[in-house]
Amino acid sequence: NNTQTQCSTVNNTQTQCSTVNNTQTQCSTVNNTQTQCSTESKVDHVCHQLRHILTKMDSAKYFLSIITTYIRKTIPELDTALMEINKLRSNPDYAQSSTDEALKYILYLVDVNDLYNVALGTYDFNLVILVAEKSQKDPKEYLPFLNKLRKLETNYQKFHIDKQLKRFRKALTHMNHCNEGHHDEFIDFIKQNKLFRDASQLLEGELRKEAASLYGSSLLADHHYEEAGIVFSSIGMYTEALDCHQQAGDWTQVMTMAHQLNYDTRTLLELTHRAAVYLKQQSMFLEAGRFLYEYGTDPEDAVEMFVDGHLWNEALRLIYKHGRIDMIETHVRPAVKDAYSAMMSNLECIREKFIRQRDRLTVVREIKEREKMELMEMEQDGVGMNCDVFSDTSSLQGDSVCSQSSSQFSKTSGKSSKNRRKAQRKKYSLKEGSRFEDIGLLDSLKGLVDNVDKLRDEIGLLLRALVVSAMTPEGRTLQETYTTLLSTVILSISNIWLPGSVVVAMKDDDKEQIFGPDATVNSIVSSMQSSTIPNMSILNQIDDVDPALFIPPRLSKSNRWKMDVLST
């Protein structure tokens, strides 16, 4: 097993072989190589080196040993060994080792049926008969089969041999060179062995086209619609390809196939509207609008789609391109006004909910802190403190949170991830007075903050649409309202995500390492969960809580959404 020892053995092989004249002893040495070497690369390396040295010394004298190096490889090269033996019949240099002796020797090392199949795979019938005779096989078993094969055309013969040996890819390559008249047989062979992919890659001409058709049908049956469409289109079956791409929802390819099929204008228009309906259902308004504009007959349809998706710039671009200024009044202004009303209502709802939950979280924390102090006083008075009661009243107090009992943990760990999430949502409910109300409030507030931050781009586009639509006062009101909400959220973050509720007496160096300027949410969570930090956070003491929940959200600092023209 020692590499250095093996290399030394190989380097000394020539010296050792020259002192060992007994061929049987040398063969035994090579046979033992596989037992002595433990890894694939080592075995093959030793066999290769031995074969190289023995061939240079005297290939005739050491012929059996050379054959053994082929057989003892991790993946035996039986076909090469047989071809080497086959050379004995025409090469006078191999007189010392007869063909009979070599075959008897190789049959001692290899199963007779395996060797027979290998010989058959060389397509050399003389070699096959030679192996069969030395293996003491009954001639009635193999001669009729071999005689039948001899009568076949060469490539058709090789096809049948590889089919017999289950070398299907090789069998497919022979099909290309066979005479006509075997088409149905070949197709049945492909179907029976499900060689659709290989056949579509290896075959040529009409056979390939039919094989590809079968492959496409197989992909379609397995619901691989996109790939099925590609396969069908590669062989000119555009109707089938169109249906597959339609099922895959790839309407770009659907229209490509429609043009390949030379569909008339009416049919193309029907496909266009079907594509627009599908894309709209997927909230892909930009793609839907572009389809309507490119393949439709009226740009107004595309403008309506863009307006529905609040893609104001796209809508205005088409309006001005086609000189349809009237559509600003008929389409854009009403939609922008509705979007403004909906956004103002949404912002007010978020503001009220945020302030209500923020204030409630402060109250809950005060209650828990007061209960905590009462329990500590009871402990000092000698009354005793129940760990379970204490854990009920301090879910977010990092100084002394009691861990959950092992029985609770085992029950939770046995649930599926889906059930755990469902149980977690129920466990950390917003119901007043619930055990983990504070965590539920924290989770909800984090979602609200993220939602407010994500509105920047949408509000920025709406502000510009309001100005273009001559609704500047509404735009100013919206900008001021959102600015106020952002300020409220930013000023509240430090009071919601208290340092003491996240990190327990963490050292300054650890804080800098975790919360430094280059930190990300993932790196913070990873560091806080790491056992290398001596002072851990509360999140290691509460089961089934997302660690990111305890990390203050980072809002974007970009003000590109704002418009100076709307500033006061």
Count of individual helical segments: 30
Could you give the count of β-strands? 0
Structural class: mainly alpha
Mean pLDDT: 80
Beta content comes to under 5%
Principal-axes shape call: elongated
* Uncertain stretches: 1-11, 387-414, 502-508, 531-541
SSE order, one letter for each helix or strand: HHHHHHHHHHHHHHHHHHHHHHHHHHHHHH
Radius of gyration, Cα only, in angstroms? 40 Å
Helix % is 55-70%
Taking the sheet with the most strands, its summary is:
none
Short description:
The protein is an all-alpha fold and 568 residues long. It has helices spanning 3-11, 13-19, 23-36, 40-58, 63-71, 78-86, 99-109, 112-120, 125-134, 139-150, 154-164, 168-175, 183-193, 196-202, 205-221, 225-234, 238-248, 251-260, 265-281, 285-295, 299-308, 312-321, 326-380, 387-392, 406-413, 417-427, 437-468, 472-496, 508-515, 521-529.
Q: Could you characterize the architecture of this molecule?
A:
- With 568 residues, this protein is mostly helical.
- It has helices at 3-11, 13-19, 23-36, 40-58, 63-71, 78-86, 99-109, 112-120, 125-134, 139-150, 154-164, 168-175, 183-193, 196-202, 205-221, 225-234, 238-248, 251-260, 265-281, 285-295, 299-308, 312-321, 326-380, 387-392, 406-413, 417-427, 437-468, 472-496, 508-515, 521-529.
- The longest helix has 55 residues, at 326-380.
